[in-house]
Structure formats: structure tokens, C-alpha cells
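Researcher: Here's my situation. A collaborator sent me these components and asked whether they could plausibly form a single complex. I don't have experimental data yet, so a predicted model of the whole assembly would be a useful starting point for our discussion.
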Amino acid sequence: MNGTHPPPELPFREETEAPDIPWQVTARMFYANKAAVLGLIGFTVIAVVGLFGPAILQADPFDIVGAPLTGPGEPRPMGTDYLGRDVLAGMIHGTRPTLMMAVTATGFAVLIGISIGALAGFYGGRLDNLLMRITEFFQVLPPLVFAMVIVAIFGASFVIVILAIGVTTWTDLARLTRAEVLKIKEREFVMAARAIGMRNRPLIVGVLLPNALPPLVIAVTLQVGFTIIYEAALSFLGLTDPEIMTWGRMIGLSRDFFFEAWWSVTFPGLAILFTTLCIALVGDGLNDALNPRLRGR
Amino acid sequence: MPAVTGKPPVLEVDGLCVDFAVRRKQVRVLSDISFTVGRGETLGIIGESGCGKSMTALALLRMIPSPPGRITAGRVLLDGEDLIQVPEKRIRAIRGGEISMVFQEPMTSLNPVYTIGNQIAETIRRHKGISGAAAWKEAVDLLDMVHIPAPERRVHEYPHHLSGGMRQRVMIAMALACEPTVLLADEPTTALDVTVQAQIFDLLREIQEVHGTCIVLITHDFGAVSEMADRVLVMYAGHKVEEGTLDEISGEPRHPYTQGLLRSMPEIVDDPADIRERLPEIPGTVPDLLRGLEGCPFAPRCPSAMPKCRDRPGYTRLGDHRSVKCWLASEGTGDRVGS
């Protein structure tokens, strides 16, 4: 036959080695990013506290244990708040609800935001118009007031608060997803995927979204921090479940006493900052580790 | 070169028209395109950028961006089945199954977030409905078939690990995954250098020989056409201006555009006397389709334009698979103008 090219007789070393296993490469990439590992450790610590802390420190965070507004020291390492409640107990018992709320509410917002953004960006035309008008409708409503209305109507239970936060915060994610999908849709590999007979749903889920992931991961990690603070605002207005202690609630309740008792707001505030930072670092590390372009370094 | 006559064509395009709605105007991007491709045959479609070559390929797969594009007339018959009429589900099965396409830019036409094995296996699974492991095995075999060294290792690599030529081989492997009857190659070698181009062409020929695939090669490079094609279709501004076998087109071009195209290619015409002279170009640029074309689309640039060219010429049939859209040919005068 005219000029077929046989493979070289002497294989390169890399060709004889066993191929890399994808998840191992991802793990190695993640591990190489020290900040991400630090974030993961930090987040694990918080999660462990959330899981086992309440079992170890069985004090009720709502109990009045001493004089109000005593500073940190023996026997209350983080002092007491304006009603004489132990801040440390609140911190520890507040971890689990705070994390659960942050993760589920963000997850809910992500679900709505990404679905709407992807559909609008992919199909375009009338559907895009319709979905974007809906998004704008949600954007122009003051989110806090909207969430207040939802909670006021349906009651201040934990689940309702999560839904209220999710329903009012998905718009930015929707816009971001739409913009990314619009951009990626024009790339040639999308055309190529259609040319091999790919249907729309696998095209969106399997081709467009994975390529849109990097900016979305960043946005989602930021969203987690935002959700925690948002819940604090709702708590401050007394619109969350009064039976459940969260960090946001602690800040909200003690806000007026900041100058007399800095510890009652600073510790939960630091906890929120720390958690958000850890999640952001992990998100960034994951993003790098999952991005095939950055591999093999 | 096998001249396929007698046998029924595998792919038959008949009177294909595509319109684009631009600024409330209907712009005809493809006007009455007809051609056939037989089994094991290669048809080269040649023309300048924007003349509708790629649009033709996309129209065959019904992948014209819509809106604004729309196929307004014509038939695309694949083994007698009209692809313009079949339901959406069927056309999806045809894409990548019976007709597959190799794109121009190997650098960007593979999905960057998946390994190449993943992408090839995906195609196989989608069309043949076989399990993951078997599809993976076939992906390795396909990579081997397109002469990628160490395929068992390469399947795990991502597109950015590979060179342009390698990626184009992967694209070809993916296109061949389901043994298509028709392979649309849209400028498969434009982004590659000449040696790699030769390898890719060797590969395509080899595959054609083994599987009897029809290849529609879209290019603006007459060198590529003369190396690969059995028959040639010359396009200009959405019109098929001339059609014939490779020998007829390169040896005896009838349309002034084809003649101009050939004169601007140094190696094609064996003309040692002229070899050091400045290459003649076709004056002017491709017409703006938005303005609407009256008469012959090439007339404003044509060296032998005449008053009659204000009317649009029809096809003049000069034989089987040989036609020219020019008044000169219909009058039977003035062939080989100015050479």
C-alpha cells in the first residue's frame, strides 16, 4: 500500500510504562497544592467538630451558665453572651446546623441556577428570553425581603429557611452558567459532538457543563460563605428556627453588644471566615486538580 | 482513478438550497447544489473561503445553525433515504453512524476535558450500544488503525497531550468508529503541515480502500484535491460553478473561475516556461451575498464577462458528472480563455 507509516520499533519509555489512573493523577495534583490540602484539613476539623462536638460537650447552648458578658477565661474559654450563655457551647453546637444549612442551601441554589443558566444558554431564542426575564425578576427583588416573605408565609423551620435562601440566591449562578454555555457552545468540539449524533441532554451535561466548571466552582465556593452570612442576617431578624443555634444566629443576636463583649460576635465570625476560606481553598484545589490542562506538571 | 458510473450512487445531493435570514433578508447561501458520490469514491469540493463548502457539509448532516439558517429546497439521498425529511431521531443516528465528519481544526475539535479514549468509546457506545469495556477495546483498536503508536497508553491521554497531526488522527478514528458510509472531511489538513498532511491523506486512502468509504473532501487547496479526489466540484458564492473528474477540471477547466483558480496554483499546471513569473490572481473579492446577486455571481471578477452575464446562466451538461455554469460553455465558444 502506498506509504503507510508503521509505529516506531523502539517505543519511548513513556509508552511502555503503565498508564496513569485518572483519579490518582487528580489526587496527586490536589496534594501538590499545599493551600488546598490545608483547606481540606481545616474543613475536616470543622466537619469533625460538627459531627462529634455536640456529643462530647453536651451542654445546651441555650442554657444560661453564668453572668452575662463575661470575657474569655476560666471556666468559659470564649466567655458568655448578653444572656450569660456559653459562647463555646454555641460555637460547637452551631457547627452542624451551620454547615448543613450552608451546604444544602447552596446546593439548592446551584441546582436551580445551573439548570436555568444551561437551558437558557444552550437553547437560546424564546426560552432564553423567558428564563432570563424570570432570572431578572428574582434579581430585582431584594433577596432578604423576599426570603423574609417566604419564611413569614411558610414558617421559620430549618427546611423552609434553606429553601428560602436557595430560591433567592441562584440568579448569579444562572447568569454565570448561561454566559459560559454561550461561550463554549460556539467551540468546535461542540459541533463535533453534535456531528457524532449526540443528543441535547448529554451534550449539555457531558460536554458543555464540564467545560464550564472552572468559574462555576469558584462561584459555588463563594456562594457557601455568602449563604452562611445570609442565614446570619435572617437569624438577626429572628426569622430562623429559634430552637437551633447557628453561628449566624449568634452573631445576629449579639450584634448590639459588639463594643461591650467583642468575643460574643468575633468567635462565630472567625468560624464563618475560617469555614468559607477552607471551602474556597478546597474548591480552588479541586478545580486545578480536575482541569486536565494543568496536569502532568 | 475509478470512474463510478453504472453503480447507483451512495450519496446523492439534488438541488440543495440553504437560506440564511440576515437582517430580515433571506440570503441564499447555497444555490441549487447537486452532486453524487459513489462507493469508494472521493469527491473534492473546492472554493474560496465563504463560498459555501462547509455549509454544504453541515447541510448534509442537517446541522445548519438554525436560526438563522434553513434548508429551503433539495434532497439529500443516502442509499435512497432523504435525510432532509427523516425525523430528528434518525438523523442523530446517521450523524456519526452512516455519515461522519472530520473537522478543520484538530486543536479545538476534541473536548478538552475528556481523554481521547473516553471520547472515542462514547461514540461507539452511542451508536452500537455495546458495553463500556468492549467500547474501550474498540477505541484502542481504532487508534491502532489510524497508526497512533502505543494506543493502549494514548487512550488515557487528553487532547492537549497530542500534536495536531495526532489529534487529527484521533478525529479520524472517532469519525470511523462506526464504519460510516460517507466521510465528510472539512479541510482536514488545513491546520497541519505538509508532511503531516501527506500522512493524513495516506491514512484516508487506506481506510477508503479497506472499507469502501465515500469521502467528500472539502478544501481550498487544489493540491489536496489533486492528490485525493476522483471528481471535483468547484464552488463559488454558494453556486456549483463546475463539476468534472479531476483530469477534466485540472486539464480542461471550462469555467473562468476554475481557470483563474488553477492559474493561481503554481505546481498544478506543468508549465515550466511560466514558473518564475508572478502568480496571476483573480482580481476582486468574493461578493457580499447580502447585497443579492443578479446574473452570474462571478461576472464582476470574470475576465471574459459579457452583457449576457447579467442573466444567470444555467448548468450546461457536458457529459456524465460534467457540468459548467457559464454562458461561455453553453455557447460552446471561447473555451480555455486567456491561457
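Model: Some features of this prediction you could bring to your collaborator: Residues 107-177 of chain B form one domain. Chain B has two domains: 38-60+93-98+181-331, 107-177.
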